[in-house]
Design a protein that fits this description.
With about 450 residues, this protein is of the alpha/beta class. Strand 1, helix 1 (about 10-20) and strand 2 form a beta-alpha-beta unit. The protein has two domains: about 1-140 and about 160-165; about 195-450, Spore Coat Polysaccharide Biosynthesis Protein SpsA, Chain A (Alpha-Beta Complex). Helix 6 packs parallel to helix 7 (about 255-265) and helix 8 (about 280-295) packs antiparallel against helix 11. It is about 30% helix and about 25% strand. The protein has helices at about 10-20, 35-45, 80-85, 105-110, 130-135, 220-240, 255-265, 280-295, 315-330, 375-380, 385-390, 395-400, 410-415, 440-450, and strands spanning about 1-5, 25-30, 50, 55, 60-70, 80, 95-105, 115, 120, 140, 145, 170, 185, 190, 195-205, 245-250, 270-275, 300-305, 310, 335, 355, 360-365, 370-375, 420-425, 425-430. The strands form seven sheets. The protein has a six-stranded parallel beta sheet with strand order 3-2-1-9-11-12, with helices on one face. It has a five-stranded mixed beta sheet with strand order 17-16-15-18-23. Strands 4-7-5-6 form a four-stranded mixed beta sheet.
């Protein structure tokens, strides 16, 4: 991760937030005020610190830089223009001047050998518009941009196209660093970009992996159940603002089910890949699913089985929870969308923490089914556990050695990565009476899925 802060000064709130990323990020501070440099050096000993001023004219090599330590309602206490500070309310007697080496933002990023910037902050004393217009978006990939849009005179949206179209543009007066919703507000509009997701689905329309003498509590046949659940998943995905790709593995289902699911996907705004499996059985589809997650280049992967009924906001809420809890803990987390009644039985009940999410409570959890969302790096890092359960679950050797979720992937949630589950669920496991949540009106959700 590359974090570049231009003219951040001593904004202590932001500096303290940036400090939490120091161990996992390459930090670059471009600070024109000489007296701030020692503080940055002592606070961020591993950071790359440059004492230069950003300008828009590459023919200028040095510039006068004006700054003031006087308190003001507006923090903008430095500029290459003295008049800018006077207009902000600083007294002339408080304004100091230094001659500083000058550089354009494009030349600076070239000198630093940075082509991708995960977070770019700049406070350049009133020349934001020139810096934005000068920016070489073909060469530099900026993922999060933060500056003061009030300094931009151009009221059209076109000016922001100078930055990578995937960039998140935010007003630093309205949103904290790496906030849950990184939003740039302008003329009543909002532009929000979200993590990309590979949703990796497995389907099979005939036998159940755990045969049960009683019908599923919804009373539907397996084909109708899958169609309904996939439809709810697609509807939830279509309510999400980020990029999603569906990767669908099918284990020799009926042609009727395949046709019906294709009809559901045909109405989605997202890309769909279909992979009919050559080998039969849970192990083949499980391995294909986890292997696709291991190779994913998306920000998140969501492994999902074919009998989960999703609420319309499920995907968005799962991503929001992932971002929030990852930020709060400073480490990777995972999300299981179903508040399983089994977790409250004496045999399985475990100590947990209950925390506030954006729209509901969430609890820490140590158990999940094969339906969960995580960073694909988790799959790569703990691949041996995913491979073991995919190849040995439900086999004679696996049964003898108790190879299942609880002895493989749930070890990750118990000891390695915090798993969070919503209260109440954002997706329901449409299984049997044991999976029926007594506090949720599943029938209303079922009927609402067209």
């Amino acid at each position: 991760m590359n974090i570049v802060c231009i003219g951040l000064g001593l904004e202590t709130d932001k500096l303290s937030e940036i400090l939490t990323f120091e161990k996992e990020a390459n930090l670059y501070f471009i600070e024109p005020i000489p007296s701030f440099i020692p503080y940055l050096q002592s606070s961020f000993p591993t950071a790359h610190i440059v004492n230069k001023a950003i300008i828009a004219d590459e023919t200028i090599k040095y510039t006068n830089f004006y700054y003031s330590y006087e308190d003001s309602p507006n923090f903008n206490n430095s500029s290459i223009h003295k008049d800018f500070l006077l207009a902000k309310g600083f007294s002339e007697s408080s304004i100091q001047c230094s001659e500083i080496e000058a550089i354009t933002i494009n030349n600076l990023l070239s000198e630093l050998n940075l082509e991708r910037i995960d977070y770019l902050y700049f406070n350049v004393g009133g020349i934001e518009e020139n810096v934005v217009l000068d920016f070489n978006h073909d060469k530099f990939d900026v993922r999060i941009l933060e500056f003061n849009p009030l300094r931009i005179k151009d009221e059209s949206e076109n000016i922001f196209l100078n930055f990578n179209k995937n960039a998140i543009v935010q007003d630093y007066y309205a949103n904290p660093l790496f906030s849950e919703n990184r939003v740039y507000r302008k003329m009543g509009k909002e532009v929000i970009t979200s993590p990309s997701i590979d949703i990796i689905l497995r389907t099979h329309s005939f036998i159940d992996i755990h045969p049960n003498p009683t019908p599923r509590y919804c009373g539907a046949d397996k084909t109708t159940l899958i169609e309904k659940c996939v439809k709810s998943l697609v509807q939830s995905a279509d309510n999400y603002d980020g990029k999603i790709k569906f990767i669908w593995f099918d284990d020799h289902s009926s042609q009727d089910m395949i046709d019906r699911v294709f009809a559901v996907f045909s109405k989605s705004k997202h890309e769909v890949e279909f992979h009919p499996l050559e080998q039969r059985g849970w192990n083949a589809s499980g391995l294909a699913q986890f292997d696709a997650g291991r190779g994913s280049s998306a920000d998140l992967v969501y492994f999902v089985e074919d009998d989960y009924l999703h609420y319309p906001t499920a995907i968005e809420e799962m991503v929001n929870a992932y971002r929030l809890f990852k930020r709060n803990l400073g480490t990777e987390v995972a999300i299981h969308p179903y508040d399983d009644p089994d977790n409250y039985l004496p045999l399985f009940i475990d100590e947990c923490r209950v925390v506030l999410g954006k729209n509901r409570h969430w609890r820490t959890n140590k158990y999940s089914t094969f339906t969960f969302m995580c960073n694909p790096e988790i799959v790569r890092k703990f691949w041996s556990r995913f491979y073991t359960v995919a190849t040995e679950y439900m086999t004679e050797w696996g049964e003898k050695n108790e190879i299942q979720e609880g002895t493989t992937i749930n070890h990750i949630w118990r000891w390695e990565v915090k798993l969070f589950t919503p209260i109440p669920s954002v997706a329901l496991h449409m299984g049997y009476e044991r999976q029926l949540d007594p506090f949720i009106d599943w029938k209303s959700l079922w009927d609402s899925v067209g």
